[in-house]
Specification:
mainly alpha, elongated
């Protein structure tokens, strides 16, 4: 066993090319994962907005429910951002502007981000 640090041990032939390929694949996978997360979060936000709209219409909930919902969601998910009353109102407006979920999903699938 050698006492040399790993960084000083000579790399095998073609190692550098192989490493570059691996790094590229890792980077590409990270980008695809980020895109998938972004799509899912936007769809989630649209669905939250739709739910708020439906409950306000069907159960005559007032605007104060958004304040309460923001408080409860932030308590349940303290490490997650985006559940302020203002953002919940944006979610509601987003869903109101585009009420067709299939349309929202189609557009999300086409966005390059």
């Amino acid at each position: 066993m050698s006492d040399k640090p790993v960084s000083l041990v000579p790399a095998p032939e073609a190692y550098a090319n192989w490493l570059e390929g691996l790094k590229s694949r890792i980077h590409n996978a990270q980008q695809r994962a980020t895109l998938a997360v972004n799509r899912e979060l936007v769809l989630l936000y649209w669905q939250i907005g739709r739910d708020i709209l439906q409950r306000q219409a069907e159960q005559a909930w007032g605007a104060k429910v958004i304040e309460r919902l923001a408080y409860d969601l932030r308590a349940a998910f303290p490490d997650m951002k985006g559940f302020s009353p203002r953002n919940l109102k944006y979610m509601r407006a987003f869903s109101e502007a585009w009420p067709d979920e299939s349309f929202v999903q189609e557009v999300l699938a086409q966005l390059p981000w």
